[in-house]
Amino acid sequence: MTEKTAFILGKREFKRENIGYIEGRLREEITDAVQMGYRRFLIGFDFEIGMMAAEIVIEQKLQQENITLEAVLAFANRSMEKDKYLQELLSQCDQVHILKDRYYTGCYRKRNEACIKKANRLIVVISPTEKGELPIAIEMARSMNKEVNVICIG
Fold first, then answer.
1. Domains in the chain, CATH or no CATH each
2. 6 has which bridge partners?
3. Cα within 13 Å of Cα(116), Cβ side
């Protein structure tokens, strides 16, 4: 039996008053995934929502030792070395994958495609008017017949 894998993505910017809702819904989605047998979680760590999801997965890892967290970074960001919070989260990952040495046009799309291919489920935090990589990731996952769970924020 192959290991069930979830890939988690989130939008870059959101209204601060939505942070409690986002965290609560991420907690529900991740807890549900664990209860349904998901044990491997891939997170891009691009923005605050990714780091929030990582914290929740780390909590789950403390409760169940067979859960793995993998960081899948689109590129090596020089500012990562200065971000102590990000470094702390990355140190708690079972694996850290850095796909390219530096940013290039399309690096997020390539990373998302690679992760969606490996995943059974995509969990994505998105606004209804979102344009760009998140709607593309959703469409890509659906075209590959992957399960897509959307957390919609205004």
1. 4-152 (3.40.50.450)
2. 41, 121
3. 26
